[in-house]
Fold this protein.
Amino acid sequence: MMNQTRIREFFSDLKMFFSAAFDFKEKSTTFIKKEAMDEMDNFMLLCYGDILGIPLPTTYYTLELLPYLAEDLEGWERRIMARQSVYGDRWGDFCC
């Protein structure tokens, strides 16, 4: 009885190992979602940085995009405000 339990545990552990080792779809999907979120954050920062106190002369023109981006604005503001440094986190991506 004890031997059967150990064999089941072994095969369960083996199954978890191989699913984690070869699960490229989940890893790549997570990576792509993170990159898309970063790009959206960059775009929103360039369009609506004045919400955070960054003076931008293009704000008048980007207000035309507001109806299309209104849903994303609150989540973006929450994500950006939770960071230590907006300049360091966002523009740090573009340095060497």
The chain has a mean pLDDT of 78.
